[in-house]
């Protein structure tokens, strides 16, 4: 399946982009078959899809102050993944486990709803404050997941891999799955953009117009669960949070317009993934050190945010000074 | 082949993990109380992840000095120093994002958490390549690994825990005041900023002690769960500070105990592979279960007792309604079940149960096998309920000025709630009325 010959072997940062865009052109013009794409291209495609999906979902998560819910989901989904393994009994043998995507999707959705339900139960019925109930629910379910993984597989390999992600284990099937996840997110965002916007910014108006804020909260939660499930093989359940928040926060620094923010978030996410893979390849070629590609993408995300922030900060001070003068 | 629990404190191999875990739970729950009451529980989650790159940096420094796994003391100190620095950096990053960029707290926490973790993993993959023998050390900090702790760790973690206990004890007054009323503390002239800085430092310290046995991913549970459990039992800060560590230490011990005991009674043992329940997650599960038990069964605040109280109140309301029905038909007459049930929404089976209870408590008597009649006490009680009902109707209609036709429904609820003191107040307020707004007589007060 995978091309044994990898055209990117030994390339540096800029050569990577040269070859990448050249091959992209070949692929688009039909001179290169879809099955002969290299491992690096699979990585690029999967990471870019994840980044785009995450930016679409993350924008509304950030604006609705629901990122900590995404954090809970990303932890509890591990339990869903493990249960999906147990139910389907798929591929526990061997180094790289195979996956049954339907089972995994269903399990992740159930876990997502269970998480939200348990947190709400502890808050409303158990009278625990919200931050504490969130923390207790996700960490205990995560602990349960780890224990189950250890019991069933006799090692924490899947647990570690689900938390850390492994870009190198990606397969061409993951491309297809990541593509579907992106399509799903794109469709929901385009279809419900207005509804999401109204329920995010003016819940009173939404109620008056007959949109249920709760329904769109749950829909966004479903979107987040599916995005996380689509991402956990490549980047792990924790680093996907960086994909969900990083590009969005960067975009938030650049614009106040929601549509622009979504667009910029998606573009920044895609660019960061591309640069991340290129840097990872560069370090491997030049220094001979295999670093975690997903980790590098996160580092790039942080760097982009810091640079953007630094560029915006003097402006911000400038404006605030004008404001102070106008008052006095 | 169960071992005596005492052995876990004396056996040279079991001793270190048990005492180490308990120390870590002690300090985490002590700090947890403060963090919990300040509603910053999720800060612990972010800071524990933020400590991860520091752990790896510590290992990298150790690796570059050529230290191997045998130098546990130096390794631990380097790791603790690194973790402390990076967790503190994470804390400043959160603060900076919130104040300078006006990013909301949840996004800032989430971004810092995932970014630091990602940076940590990138560094970790470097360690895996250069110092693969030390890589196991890093893995231990992900989910925790109590089993590999030695006496050296106990000395280090013990002194750090002692530091936390002493700091909390010394600054108890300030911590209490700042936690509950920051502005009041300021007006008293407390150095609020410094104390808060100290709290954050202690939080970071507690997290660093904890991640060795529970791991960065699960650390936040050990901060929240004991404090949340303790909160169920008391309203007082000092008592909470005493109960929470007990819960914490109990879960630390039980987590260790269960992870070893259950591993040995493993039915899959026949396959020969060494099988072990991971200690860190087990401690977390035990702590969460304790917290859940506290939420359900604690006195006063517990869910179960609240539900029971509500159910008892409802049942009392139903009893009173049945008594009232008989009284309004005729206090001196006998009625069959069918006649009573005509005025009640409950099923006849349930009504039979209610009447049985009323007979047993002496409010209702059964002159024949099929008829029911109020006793003297029952008559008095029913009259009191009707009296309260009608008094309240008068109050609503004449004093508050609500329409006569709308007062009944509210009075139907208030009749079960009004206390004798309130009744006395109403009598004084309304000049002891004799009829209600519907022109029905208010029964006189009897004793």
What are the key terms here?
heterodimer, A: 0% strand, globular, B: 447 residues, 72% helix, elongated
3D architecture notes:
The complex is a heterodimer of chains A (328) and B (447). With 328 residues, chain A is an all-alpha fold. Helices cover 80% and strands 0% of the residues of chain A. Chain A has 12 helices and no strands. Chain A has helices spanning 13-28, 39-63, 67-88, 101-124, 130-153, 157-164, 172-191, 193-201, 203-209, 213-254, 258-286, 293-327. In chain A, 48% of the residues are buried. Mean pLDDT of chain A is 82; it is low at 91-96. Chain B has 447 residues and is an all-alpha fold. Chain B has helices at 7-10, 15-37, 41-50, 52-64, 72-100, 105-130, 132-143, 151-170, 172-180, 182-187, 192-211, 219-231, 237-264, 279-297, 303-329, 337-341, 348-360, 376-400, 407-414, 420-430; strands spanning 335-336, 364-365, 371-374. Chains A and B meet through helix 3, helix 5, helix 6, helix 10 and helix 12 of A and helix 3, helix 6, helix 7, helix 12 and helix 14 of B.
Short description:
The complex is a heterodimer of chains A (328) and B (447). Chain A is mainly alpha-helical and 328 residues long.
List the helices and strands and how they pair.
The complex is a heterodimer of chains A (328) and B (447).
Chain A lengths: L12 H16 L10 H25 L3 H22 L12 H24 L5 H24 L3 H8 L7 H20 L1 H9 L1 H7 L3 H42 L3 H29 L6 H35 L1
Helix pairs in contact in A: 1-11, 2-7, 2-10, 2-11, 3-4, 3-5, 3-10, 4-5, 4-10, 6-10, 7-10, 8-9, 10-11, 10-12, 11-12
Chain B lengths: L6 H4 L4 H23 L3 H10 L1 H13 L7 H29 L4 H26 L1 H12 L7 H20 L1 H9 L1 H6 L4 H20 L7 H13 L5 H28 L14 H19 L5 H27 L5 E2 H5 L6 H13 L3 E2 L5 E4 L1 H25 L6 H8 L5 H11 L17
Antiparallel strand pairs in B: 1-3, 2-3
Helix pairs in contact in B: 2-8, 2-11, 2-12, 2-13, 3-5, 3-6, 3-12, 4-5, 4-6, 4-7, 5-6, 5-11, 6-7, 8-11, 12-13, 12-14, 13-14, 15-17, 15-18, 18-19, 18-20
